[in-house]
Write a structure and sequence with these properties.
This protein is of the alpha/beta class. It has 13 helices and twelve strands. The chain binds pyridoxal-5'-phosphate.
Length: 427
Amino acid sequence: MKYSELSLEEKREQFKRAQIEFDCLCKLKLSLDLSRGKPIGEQLDLSNDMFNVLTGDRDYIGENGVDYRNYGMLDGIPEAKKLFSDLLEIPAKNIFVGGNSSLNMIYDALTRLMLHGAPGVNMPWCKYDKVKFICPAPGYDRHFSMLENLGIEMITVEYLENGQPDMDKIEELAKDPEVHGLICVPKYSNPTGYTYTRETVRRLAKMECAAPDFRIIWDNAYFIHDLYTEEKLADIFEFCKRYGTEDRVLYFASTSKITFPGAGIAVMAMSDNNMAQAKKLVNVQTIGSDKINQLRQVRFLGDADNVRQHMARHADIIRPKFDLVFETLEAELGGLGIASWTRPNGGYFISLTVMDGCAKRVWNLMKEAGGVLTGAGATYPYGKDPRDANLRLAPTFSALHELEVCIQALSTCVRLASLEKLLEGEN
Ligand SMILES: Cc1ncc(COP(=O)(O)O)c(C=O)c1O
C-alpha cells in the first residue's frame, strides 16, 4: 500500500519499524559502497590476454610498414581507426584516435574552443561575455565539474518521464546566442541508463542554434555496453548531413569499459572541418599518442564482431547484479509510492528517484549505516538537484552478496527518510 494512503497512526507505526530496522543496521557496522562505476576484477580479467599480444618478432610494425615505436601519426594508427570506424559506423577519416581517456579528449576539445574558437567562426569562447551550455540532467558529474572549471554556465534541462531530454526546452534555449553547446551521454546514459530515441537525435541535429559555433558533446561512453535488449542509437552524423549541421557534433568514445579503464584508447569523431582544426591544434600539444597501446588494444580486440562477443562476456558478469538490484528494490520498495528507479538495458548505472527533499537525507542515513553512495546532487550541474530526489546506483563493482545487503540497507534508509517527510509537521 502507498505510504501516502496510510492513516497517521499507520504511518507512525511504519516509522517506528523503519527506525528499529535502521538502528539494527547501524549496529552491524557494515562497510558498503554503491558509488563506484567501474568494472570488477572478474571483468578486467577478460582482457588479461592483452598482456600476451605484441610479443612476437617485430610486433611493433603496423600494417602500413610503419615502426610504431617511434613518433608520428598524430591522429592514430590506421588499425585503431578501422576498428572504431567499424564499431561506430563512422568513416575512418573522421576518427581521431588519442590517448587513454575520452574525458581528457572532451576537456581538450572544450579548451580548444575556449582558446581558439570553432573553425569558420574563429572567435575564442573565452572572449564572449558569457558561454552557456545545456545540460540534460541527471547527468555525469564529471561533465558538470569540467564545464564549471572552464567557466561555462550550465543550464539544467530535466529528462521527461519517457526518458528523453525535454527537446522543446532545448530547442528554445538554443535560440539564445549565449548558448554555445550541449553535453550528453546519448546511450545508456550515466546515470539514468536511457537511450536517446531517433526523434531526439534528429531534433538535436536539426534544431536552429543562434550561436554559429554551437557544439554538441556526444559522449557515447556506453556505445556497446548492452546488458539486456540492445538499444540502437541513431546515427547523429547522418541527420547532421541531412540538415547541413555536421560541424555541430563532437563525438567521443573509448575502450575504458571494454578493456582496462584508464589504460585503454579513446577516440573523437567529427566532421572534416573539425578534424582539420583538431589536427592543426593538437599538433602543437603533442607529437602523437601511444601507438604501441593502440596496436596492443587492436590486436587483442580483433574485429568488431569479436568486440561484441567480448562485451557479451562483460554483460554476463554484470547482468545478475542489475537483476538483483531490480528484484531487491521491487521487494523492498515496490508499491509504496516513495521511490522509482530506471531499468536500463545497458551501461553501468541505475537512477533512483526518491520523494522530493529526501535524497540528501537518504545519503546521510546510508552514511550512518556504513554505506557510500555517489553524493546526492552530484548528478546535477553545480551539485544542485532542484528536487533533491535523485541518487545514482552503481552496481558493477560490488560482489552479489554485498550488493543485496547494500540495496536492503538503502531501502531501509529510503523508507525511513520518506516516513520522516510524510510525518513532518504531524508530531
Ligand atoms: C559518461 C562517461 N564518459 C566518460 C567516462 C570516462 O571515460 P574515459 O575513461 O574514456 O575517460 C565515463 C566513466 O565512467 C563515463 O561514465
